[in-house]
């Protein structure tokens, strides 16, 4: 399972999905997450409005991920992500801490 974290600095989940210009991709191993790569994109949200092609392009970048961790995501983006099988988890904090909490939720069955 792969997870995309929305972060401007690679340390802290600190951005809205629509404002993301980069995604930090992690893969779940048996008991932890491992960083795989940084993927660059383009912000598509413009004050509550978005360009559908740019939204699709952003989702294409993380298409192999099952989850995305972001500070927020708009309703239209959440719908589009869900249609592609990507679940949005709202998170803010250090990426490592958010991944640990997410792992705990997964292992306890609280998806």
Task: Briefly characterize the structure.
The protein has about 110 residues and is α/β, with parallel strands linked by helices.
Work out the helicity level: 25-40%
CATH superfamily: Dinitrogenase iron-molybdenum cofactor biosynthesis domain
| SS content category | alpha/beta
Q: What would you report as the Rg, rounded to the nearest angstrom?
A: 13 Å
Task: Spell the H/E element sequence.
Answer: EEEEEEHEHEEH
For the report, how would you describe the main beta sheet? Answer: 5 strands, mixed
Uncertain stretches: none
CATH architecture, by name, is 2-Layer Sandwich
Number of helices: 3
Protein name: Dinitrogenase iron-molybdenum cofactor biosynthesis protein
Organism: Acetobacterium tundrae
InterPro entries: Di-Nase_FeMo-co_biosynth (IPR003731), DiNase_FeMo-co_biosyn_sf (IPR036105), NifX/NifY_domain (IPR051840)
Pfam family, one: Nitro_FeMo-Co
Description:
There is one protein chain. By secondary structure, the chain is of the alpha/beta class. The protein has three helices and nine strands. The protein has a five-stranded mixed β-sheet, with helices on both faces. The protein has a two-stranded antiparallel ribbon with strand order 2-9. It has a two-stranded antiparallel ribbon with strand order 5-6. The chain is globular, with a radius of gyration of 13 Å. It starts with a strand and ends with a helix.
